[in-house]
Amino acid sequence: MRQMKRVAVLGAGVMGAAIAAHLANAGIEVLLLDMVPEQAKGAPAEDKAQRNQIADRALAALAKSRPAAFYAPEYAAWIETGNFDDDSHRLTECDWVIEVVLENLEVKQRLFRDKVVPNLKQDAILSSNTSGLSVNELAQALPAELRRRFMVTHFFNPPRYMRLMEMVPCSDTDPHLLRSMASFMDKRLGKGVVFAKDTPNFIANRIGTYAGAATWRHMVEMGLSVEEVDAVTGQAMARPKTGTFALWDLVGIDTVVRVMDNSYELLTGDDERELFRVPESTRRMVAEGLTGKKGKGGFFKRETVDGNSVKLCYDPESGAYRECVSPKFASVGAARQIDDPGARVKALLQGSDKAADFAWRTLRDTLIYTAKRMPEIADDVVNVDNAMKWGYNWDLGPFELLDALGVASFVARADRDGVALPQWLREVESFYRVEQGKRFFYSIVDKKYREVPLNRGQVSLTLLRSAAGVVERNAAASLIDIGDGIFCLEFHSKMNTMGGDTLAMIQKGLRRSEADGLGMVIANEGSLFSAGANLMLIAMACAEGAWDDLNLTVKSFQRAMMAIKYSGIPVVAAPHSLVMGGGCETCLHADAINAHAETYMGLVEIGVGLIPAGGGTKEMALRAVRLAEANGADVTPFLLKNYQNIAMAKVSSSATELMAMGLMRPGDGITLALDRRIFDAKLKAISLAANYRPGKPEAAVKAPGRGIAASIKTQLWNLEQGGFISAYDHYLASGIADVITGGDVPAGTIVSEEYLLDLERETFLKFCGQKKTQERIQHMLKKGKPLRN
After folding, report:
1. Could you give phi then psi for residue 371, rounded to 5 degrees?
2. What is the pLDDT of residues 457-509, one digit of tens each?
3. What pLDDT is stored for residue 309 in this prediction?
4. Residues of the chain above pLDDT 70, percent
5. Using CA atoms, how far apart are residues 440 and 82, in angstroms rounded to an integer?
């Protein structure tokens, strides 16, 4: 794998600046260059403020961007700005130069000739971030030797969050160098790499744009509204919940038009070229500044009417906005109840309403088009499926979806419609098979099944399960042998919520790992790590007044967390995505954390009127006390920071922020590559096992005391009087203050860890008995968002 210590990004537009930010996130020094502004052309070279304006403004904008471009604000210091005229000679310092200027062949080639070629160091890599121009045409501006080190590296926007990296070699690119760069993209930048061919818009935008165009065609044919289309083309179709037109608003309707125009212009031999012709109504929207979120509106916008925020929808036929109507389709409602994405789409297509008919038509056309483009756009179905999952956030790629629907069933239904199909599609039973812990794909080139390669350092729990790697299992969790004496505890309940079965498997998994292994990792491959404790069970217990049962449940949760903390083997948590409440508490009690970079973790129980009672409040108190003792300092500032995490339901915006929040500690790790997270956690468990010394529950903790709690309560009173929090927020936050400071005792009183757990549990039960907490729980279950009462 090539190492990139310093990278130059040429072009400080929205995309170039965001790429620079993500390189900085990965700990790489960046030189960000752009043009000298016209008005500064006469300024002396020493006047950096004038001549570097474009790059400087881009860097300043990154600090304010939402969603945040940096994992932490201080990472901006890894980017140095400059301009093409004064600083091109500094390209000699860089291991990799990425061009991200205007999407124009002539402009890019001129930059290569004038600024890059004369200054590039001998072994540096040059790449273009073009989203659709020909890599071979771009290469014509380069000397023959440099073409070996030239390729397309197409980031998707925003680069920090979008996993896809499309890599396209030119005819002269060194294949070993291409693979080395792909490894770098995976390990250092956390990218999912797909190898595309030199065709217009490569893979993801080719298929994604077609899918959008097909959606438009059938919307018009069937007379559907934009909100009806989005109701169908979101989660019901195993795609992002935004749906088609809300997504266009997000990425920019002008961007959609540009990609479609590019497709129409270049796809002269495509049998469905006409579908890429931009509708006049959409072109008119762009001309009127209706480009989506960044413009005056898009297919959707909000306006205040009589003091109320009203959602408006654009009618392409009339060119006017009207108030949105929430569509109700039986097929969509039924599909949304199903967790498995393949089964969900299958259920949608089995419906008998116009939504099901519309879904079938758009999916049919998109899947057939994708099949027809093989192997024009990629050598195998794996690259295409990954491109759509990582670039468009589809739950299933096109060929995975064909498997879920049944290839033969799909072909038969398409035949009934009288739609033409590629002949080879009739010869395929399925595109994927899993056998003996390996996944195979159908190769359309030689009509054989080939193994889907795993990245080095990738642990696939799915494949291990298929190879009889599961050693313990119940309805909510499993224990899987991941090799080298390490077991993985995997949650697999709905949203990976934690109930009795999960807690039982934590205890059972620890016993099995202690008996037969060296350590345990807690991780899963779900869309999120854990939504926390099963709120429905708590709501039912409150409704029935089953306080004794609830007390036992909370006690069981606490025992499971303490079992993790004081296990005879090291336990490493490997969280990713959302890690809420009890999921966070699980991580806090592990010996170490190895988090995916995009981990959004927090103790959020106050949002439903509760307190972290799985040891979370206790753990925040202990960490504050021990930090103060280690630094010979007053405990108050440490405690207040940890208290605020709970009372304000703070959630990290990245794994990096978990360090500042005190939820991760020195020695914990962060992995940018999602597929490497479990492997890295496994390595950490192995290293800890070498000299592991189990701990014992703490018996001598100096309680911070009621004086600090009184100070916190004074601030809470001020916040309530100022209208910043409700009276009930005040009540809840006061209860949390009492627990985290050790209860109604003088400062320095010696208490035990068990005593703090008892305080947590008593306060949790007290909160559960309050009507307003029960209202908050019900609101969260029904609406999926917190209630401020």
Report:
1. -60, -40
2. 899 999 999 998 999 999 999 999 999 999 999 999 999 999 999 999 999 99
3. 86
4. 100
5. 48
100 neighbors 22 (Cβ within 8 angstroms) = no
Cβ-in-10-Å burial (0-12, 13-18, 19+) of 108 comes to buried
Rounded-to-integer distance, Cα 761 and Cα 741, Å:
15
Q: How many CB atoms lie within 10 A of CB 766?
A: 12
In the beta sheet, which residues pair with residue 34?
A: 83
How far apart are the C-alpha atoms of 527 and 394, rounded to whole Å? Answer: 12
Q: Residue 36 class from Cβ within 10 Å (0-12 exposed, 13-18 middle, 19+ buried)? A: buried
370: helix, strand or coil:
helix
Name the phi and psi angles at 230, rounded to 5: -65, -30
What H or E segment, with its residue span, contains residue 9?
Answer: strand 6-10
- CA angle in degrees (0–180, nearest 5) for 629-632-638: 60
- Picking from 377, 380, 398, 376, the residue whose alpha carbon sits closest to that of residue 389 is 398
59: its two tokens? 């860097």
CATH of range 6-195; options 3.40.50.720, 3.40.50.1970, 3.90.1150.10, 3.30.450.40: 3.40.50.720
Three-state SS for 335? helix
Fill in the amino acid letter for 309.
S
- Dist CA 705 CA 105 (whole Å): 69
The fold adopted by the segment(s) 461-604+652-695 is 2-enoyl-CoA Hydratase; Chain A, domain 1 (3.90.226)
- Helix 753-768 crosses helix 616-631 at what angle (to 10 degrees)? 140
Angle 745-750-751 from CA coordinates, rounded to 5°: 80
The secondary structure of 397-443, three-state, reads CHHHHHHHHCHHHHHHHHHHHCCCCCHHHHHCCCCEEEECCEEEEEC
Amino acid at 734: S
Q: pTM, whole model, 2 decimals? A: 0.95
> What is the number of other CB atoms lying within 10 angstroms of the CB of residue 539?
17
Tokens of 145: 């030797």
